[in-house]
Amino acid sequence: MAWIVLVVAGLLEVVWAFAMKQSEGFSRLWPSVITLVTMAMSFACLAWAMRSLPLGTAYTIWTGIGAVGAFIVGIAFLGEAMNATRILAAVLIVSGLVLMKLSSTA
After folding, report:
1. What residue ranges are annotated as transmembrane (predicted)?
2. How many Å apart are CA 3 and CA 34, to the nearest integer?
3. What distance in Å separates the CA atoms of residue 97 and residue 82, rounded to the nearest whole number?
4. Distance between CA 76 and CA 86 in Å, rounded?
């Protein structure tokens, strides 16, 4: 269950990062509210998952999901560049996440 909650925490991180971008420096109300609410939910889920998962594993997975998710959202919805170097970087991050999960004892 901790792994599922951790994935949810990571996905919520993607949501708050996207909403933060849409808030234009917290100058737009609803994207700012979404940012703060999903940020709190993401932290709460991360904290819950850390009750049974090792710190290094949980935090790495959480930030990795957020980083790769934000990368994908940036390309899909914000017109950000997609080139071989950026894709390789995302693949390396995902590879690290897989290795972290495989090496975890929890």
Report:
1. 33-50, 57-78, 84-102
2. 24
3. 21
4. 14
